[in-house]
Amino acid sequence: MEIAVIGGSEFVVGFRLAGIRKIYDAEDEEKLKRSVSTVMEDPDVGILVIYAKDMERLPARLRSTLENSIRPTVITIGAEEGGLSMRDRIKRSVGVDLWK
Amino acid sequence: MALRDVKPTRSELINLKRKIKLSERGYNILKMKRDGLILEFFKVLDEARTTRGALEEKYGKAVGMIALSNTIEGTLALKSAALSVKEIPTIQLKSKNIMGVVVPEISSSKVKKGLLERGYGLLGTTSVMDETATSYEDLVEAIIRSAEIETTMKKLLDEIESTKRRVNALEFKVIPELTEARDFIKMRLDEMEREELFRLKKIKARTKG
Q: How far apart are CA B163 and CA B165, in angstroms?
């Protein structure tokens, strides 16, 4: 399985340097949405790395699908509150805010 | 189950008693499962927080390096170097079982590469490029690790939530309703018995008199 990266060109170039091949572009909303659905349907992607700002641009429904997805696992990076969705989940399941 | 649906018979009472026993046993087991899951969750939580922190830190460093590369090498050179990297890091997903929750175990092929394995020419680029590549390889490693841990957390949280729901449903809905029905039947049966006794007495008195 491979790692996939979705983001703007300056975000993804470094990942390309690290050898990742499945790079999808997210210049505008349409392309972003299309890239996300391509990755979600690709059975060979194990981890999806997405830029936090792009994640925020996604429609709420698609975003929650990504947040709940386990295969591929979605990791957002680039924002301060990287674990915000995790924090909400913990609050809901355990009842106490244990994140930080 | 509404009370008016309950038939006050002895067999129903026996059935209900059996059901209550079963639900209580299930309730206890589920409660233990929930506590066990929460314990496991705490173990993962600390790890998740540290890996998240490391991930953000590595990302910050990588972004700084790429900006530097961009300035020194130029966007075009950076892109062409990036496109010539050949080795692709691949990951393998295995699964592990934590208290009935199947969580992934992600292992990866070598992400870190030596200078010569990277594929771009050494002469045409500066050491900044190499450092950028190294920092991004670090980042990818961190991503793989935190992917495993965060998936584990997600799965554990889901399981905790559903177990908690089940425990609460049993504790606050199923068991109280069953006991209520049991008490109702008991009361009705006792009442019927008393009526019967009274009737018998009445008949006895009449036959005597």
A: 5
Question: Which chain B residue shows the shortest CA-CA distance from A69?
Answer: B151
What part of B 126-155 touches A (C-beta under 8 Å)?
129, 132-133, 135-137, 139-140, 143-144, 146-148, 150-151, 153-155
Spell out which residues of chain A touch residue B56, defining contact as CB-CB under 8 Å.
77, 80, 82
8 A C-beta contact, residue A5 and residue A24:
yes
ipTM of the complex: 0.82
Q: Output the DSSP codes for chain B.
A: --GGG----HHHHHHHHHHHHHHHHHHHHHHHHHHHHHHHHHHHHHHHHHHHHHHHHHHHHHHHHHHHHHHHH-HHHHHHHHHT--PPPBEEEEEEEETTEEEEEEEE------GGGS-S-SSSS-HHHHHHHHHHHHHHHHHHHHHHHHHHHHHHHHHHHHHHHHHHHIIIIIHHHHHHHHHHHHHHHHHHHHHHHHHHHHHHHHHH-
d(C-alpha A49, C-alpha A76), whole Å: 6
Supply the pTM of this predicted model. 0.79
Question: What whole-number distance in Å separates Cα of residue B19 and Cα of residue B114?
Answer: 66
The model's pLDDT over B134-180, given as tens digits with 9 standing for 90+, comes to 888 888 888 888 888 888 888 888 899 999 999 999 999 999 999 99
- Residue B154 to residue B151: CA distance in whole angstroms: 5
Chain B residues with beta carbon closer than 8 angstroms to that of A46: 91, 93, 106, 147
